[in-house]
Amino acid sequence: MTNFWQNIQSPNFSLAPMEDVTDTAFREVVLKTAASGKLHLLFSEFTSVEGMCHPVGHDKVKHRLKINESEQKLLKEKNVKLIAQIWGKDPEKYYKTAQFIANETEFDAIDINMGCPVKNVVKNGCCSALITQPELAREIILATREATNLPLSVKTRIGFKQVVTESWISHLLNTPIDALTIHGRIQKQMSEGMADWNEIAKAVKLRDEMAPNIKIIGNGDVESYQEGLEKCEKYGVDGVMIGRGIFKNPWFFDPDKRDIEMEEKIELMKEHTRLFDQSWGDSKNFAILRRFFKIYTNGFHGASSLRNDLMSTRNAEEVYAAVNRFLLSEQA
User: What positions does the domain DUS-like FMN-binding occupy (predicted)?
Assistant: First the structure.
């Protein structure tokens, strides 16, 4: 199998894995809005290895790895790689989950979550808590690598309670990974304050000295495509990962797209609603979709009124009805 990390375009752009956000429906929306050659990597939602290996929990968790046929088609057309992100603390379960992903899904690679700062996750010794358990982190990487030939990456932070970039990143660079995404905050910060890109630059320097074959992706506070390009140039990273920036602009990966009209925003919202409904039906709480409505309902007359109406919708039909009422009122 060809390892795409070895010849991926630089600078490259990716959409971050986000809980209850980066499901197959929203990934397809992002693929549809991305300009050719401007988006390179997409990630799944966080997928628990414990859940995947549980006799009852498996069926409740594996939906996070769902890929619609329509998404798969767009991934191929736009040459975008899709990566499954997994989390947990048991190396054996990482091994089994990695084998499942390699044998039962169409994902192009695996990413290990060593960065999520959420307290109830950290309390169980998972994700960013692994920064404080470097040997366990190494065991997890080795177990995942042993399970499959799929390309392997890690997403992490620059520290837990304090910055430990040199020791922690050096440790990871001594493991058999292909890429490393670094969020420029410590766990204690959660999403507060500004990401420290100077620490990310330190990681790049360490990489250059220790493992020049490993790609470094920077993450944190990238507000525009142009800013992403500038950060790649200034800090030496191979690419940037976009998280919250997508909520400000769903056309983030089409930097030439400006002054988007109301009608286009509403049509994209309706398409997202259709894809969500088609993908999940009644198997997912429709309220998850409401968090996206603010993405599409801004910057035009009456947007707040439409948004308020949408926040009480319970299914796709009610969304379409709310939109129709709004459009009729605007014509009156």
Answer: 15-323
Domain membership of residue 51 as a residue range: 4-248
Q: Could you identify the residue written with the tokens 């520290």?
A: 159
Q: How far is CA 22 from the centre of its chain?
A: 6
pLDDT tens column, 152-161 = 999 999 999 9
Active site residues: 116
Looking at residue 102, the DSSP 8-state letter turns out to be H
Q: Kindly state whether residues 325 and 240 are assigned to the same domain.
A: no
Q: How confident is the model at residue 133 (pLDDT cuts 50, 70, 90)?
A: very high
List the structure tokens of 114: 């060593």
Q: Please report, for residues 264, 271, 285, 296, 322, the alpha-carbon distance to residue 305 in angstroms, rounded to integers and kept in the order given.
A: 18, 20, 23, 13, 10
Angle at 21 between CA 96 and CA 54, to 5 degrees: 25
Q: How far is CA 157 from CA 117, 183, 185, in A?
A: 9, 5, 6
Same domain as 279, residue 238: no
Backbone angles phi, psi at 85, to 5 degrees: -100, 130
Which residue, chain included where needed, has tokens 């599409």? Answer: 296
- Of 194, 215, 248, which residue constitutes the final position of a domain? 248
262-280 and 24-33 helices, crossing angle to 10°: 150
Are residue 218 and residue 267 in the same domain, yes or no? no
Task: Work out the percent of the chain whose per-residue pLDDT is above 90.
Answer: 96
Q: Which amino acid is at 136?
A: L
Q: What is the pTM of this model?
A: 0.96
Residue 11: asked if its preceding bond is cis (omega within 30°), the reply is: yes
